[in-house]
Amino acid sequence: MHIAFIVFLKGHWTRITEPVGGRLSYKPPIQDINAPDLYIPLMAFGTYIVIAGYALGVLGRFTPEALTLQFTRGLVGWFLQVVLIKGLLYSLGSGEAPLLDIVAYAGYGFAGTSLAMLARIFWSYLYYFIMPWFCLCTGVFLVKTMKRVLLGGPRSYERHPSRNHYFLLFLAVVQFPMLFWLGNISG
Where are the transmembrane segments (predicted)? Predict the structure, then answer.
């Protein structure tokens, strides 16, 4: 989790490769800390739903329909992130990134959103200090990982470097409204 929350202290973002059958293949997440896996995003999404349900209960607005709305909002947000990342990678000529890797990268935002929602339960103003930090960290995390995906592709990065920089900046900026929208508990 420190990779996603304290991104400024991480030195390298390259994946570890190994030769398998004459080709280079990436090592699995158990052996490579930079490898994406779905465990953290799925657990963070589950935690997001539990904390949203608890917060709705504390506010006296808990109903199954309200929790279903939060669940649906989370899935829609995750789906929009995946579509955005995949679409922008495809438009830049780097559409070879595996879909499950993109799903994992897009789901890391739920961890920070869950912690910010938990902070909001105890002191509502704390949310407005913590959430921008997690948005910034998620944006930087996605920029670093997507830069690696772009550089690992067929070198389209060298043909349109400014376009790629704008894509990465747009991806980082989108995290702010997206995660604030996900963190909004409605009932």
Answer: 38-59, 71-92, 125-143, 164-183
- Convert the pLDDT of each residue in 37-78 to its tens digit: 899 999 999 999 999 999 999 999 999 999 999 999 999 999
3-state secondary structure of 156: coil
Domain spans, the chain: 36-183
Question: Distance between CA 3 and CA 14 in Å, rounded?
Answer: 13
Q: Given a cut of 80, is residue 111 above it in pLDDT?
A: yes
Q: Name residue, tokens 């789906």.
A: 79
Classify the phi-psi angles of 155: left when phi > 0, otherwise alpha if psi is within -120 to 50, otherwise beta: left
DSSP strands (E only) in the chain: 17-20, 23-26
Give me the pLDDT at residue 146, please: 85
pLDDT confidence of 79, banded at 50, 70, 90? Answer: very high
pLDDT at 90: 86
- For the entire predicted model, the pTM comes to 0.85
At 140 the three-state DSSP class reads helix
Residue type, 42: L
- Please tell me the distance from the alpha carbon of residue 137 to that of residue 16, in angstroms, as a whole number: 23
From 113, 75, 106, 86, select the one nearest 167 (Cα to Cα): 86
Report how far residue 94's alpha carbon sits from residue 89's, in angstroms, rounded to the nearest whole number.
Answer: 5
Phi and psi for 33 in degrees, rounded to 5?
A: -65, -20
For the chain, the straight-line distance linking the first and the last C-alpha, in angstroms and rounded, comes to 30
